[in-house]
Amino acid sequence: MKPYSVYLFRFAAVMVIVVMFMGCTHTITIRSADIPLLQTGSPLKGIKPKTFAFKEFRDIRGTDALWVGKIGDYEQKLDQPVAAVVAMAIRKELERNGHICIDYSLQSKADFIIEGSVYKYRLYFDRVTLFTSRFIGNVAVKLTISNTSPDKGVLIKSYQGESQIESGAGFATGGKPLVTLSQAQLAMVKEISTDSELIEFIEK
Amino acid sequence: MKSYRARLRRLLLSMNMDFMRRFPALLRGCLCLCIASCQISCATLPQQTYLTSASLSGISKVAIVVSVNAPEVLYAKDTTSGYTGVGLLFGPLGILIEIGAVATVAAVKSGIDQGHAAEVKEHMNISHFEDKTAQSFMQPLKKGYLFQSVEQMPSMNQDSGQLHTIGYDAVIRLNVREISIQRAPGDYVKLIAYVHGEMERLATGSIVWDREEVVTNPEPHTLDYYKENGLKELDTMLEKAAKNLAYDFIYLK
Questions:
Q1: Across the interface, which of A170, A179, A194 has its CB nearest the CB of B44?
Q2: N or C: less crowded end of chain A, CB within 10 Å?
Q3: Contact B83 A36 (CB under 8 A)
Q4: Which among A148, A179, A144, A180 has a CA at the least distance from the CA of A159?
Q5: Cross-chain Cβ contact A170/B38 below 8 Å
Q6: Looking at this predicted complex, what is its ipTM?
Q7: What single-letter DSSP state applies at residue B185?
Q8: What single DSSP character describes residue A1?
Q9: Of B229, B220, B222, B156, residue with least CA distance to B191
């Protein structure tokens, strides 16, 4: 039988390690380039090509521009500002369907001007039981699309996407945060890309 | 002094500080591997097969088979289960107490949810949802004149060989895999539908299109709202999912 001081020392050592890990926050950077593009069919393809001028999107989440969530001790951040990533995703979807996208300037000639406010871009972890959990991703943007022709109006609409991925007990490593976020962003882009009200507004 | 030591020993034993010593080395290794594997969670985006114009060449007569999974139609999950990990601070006993408490709450909620699920299931007319999904999918296809004929088959008649014999070139199978009601914060619930679609070229048996569409109702509502309007909401969601899947055919890559 070992002296109690040995057990006490071991116990203290374990507690110190636990406290150290509890106090540490690590940052995981998600590469926005790893978020894939939508590949599904879109009615945007059926419209005569238009030119869209993009104003800089705003991030109105009230957090750090790169922050997307905290899972355990892991801060999840994007490598680019969230607002820029959302704007790029919408831009690429329009381009994929044959439209032209440019940066907005006073001199730019475009059929539509797009402004956006990102109000949700969040990844979180939810433990369902002790051994099962899930990652949840939420992405939402409010778009203001103005037709540059006089009297053709403005469309203001919010679009959002959500994704859930079932997981095991752990969350420390692996690609689930990226996949969850990718799916949520793709779902939001799909909402835009298949929205009949938007298609009607562009075709008008 | 002796009683202090005895108490300390009991405390340490209750914290299982020396339980590892009783494990053989192999078991210790296995335990470590198990814990490590629990912490690792890998994932990739679900594999989907998208259509190209080449995938549809030579296909003119298409059969559509739609099925809605009845037995697993509704289930509930709790997004606010309440595992806080506070139990960890009180050693193994604390963890057990927390597991017990959370499991009891979960069991009660699960019982309530199952009751609600059975109630909603009773009101569900599966064939209505099958027809609705089929019509929402076929309508744009017919408008687009993509195929010479598109016909809905009864769910029973989905044997590929038989369909090929009676002259079909391909079969599109749409399956509403899961319809789930999930708890959301603040006594709200969300409705989510998973619709899977695949197209099989009957001559070769190859799958040329394989996609899953997940539709969530944009805002969570109360359970009472769904008791009143759930079927209407579900109609809209399935219509949307079916239309989105049909867009793959109309607006090819």
A1: A179
A2: N
A3: no
A4: A144
A5: yes
A6: 0.81
A7: T
A8: -
A9: B220
Compute the nearest-CA separation of A55 from chain B (Å): 26
The residue in chain B having the minimum alpha-carbon distance to the alpha carbon of residue A170 is B39
Residue B38, SS3?
A: helix
Chain A residues close to B81, C-beta within 8 Å: 126-129
* Residue written as token pair 């109000």: A119
* Amino acid type, A24: C
Contacts of B48 in chain A (CB under 8 A): 39
pLDDT in tens, A82-105: 999 999 999 999 999 999 999 999
For strands B149-153 and B61-68, give the pairing: parallel
CB A60 within 8 A of CB A144: no
**What residues of chain B lie within 8 A of the CB of A96, using their CB?**
none
Choose the closest CB to A170 out of B17, B40, B79: B40
Answer whether A195's CB lies under 8 Å from A158's CB: no
Pairwise CA distance, residues B235 & B129, whole Å: 7
In tens, the pLDDT along A174-192 reads: 678 888 999 999 999 999 9
- CA distances A38 to A99, A183, B197, Å, are 15, 10, 17
Instruction: Kindly state the helix (H) or strand (E) to which residue A190 belongs, with its residue range.
Output: helix A176-193
Q: Which residue of A has its CA nearest to B253?
A: A41
Residue B199, both tokens: 């197209």
- What is the maximum alpha-carbon separation in chain B? 94
Chain B hits for A45, Cβ within 8 Å: 251
Q: Identity (one letter) of the amino acid at A6?
A: V
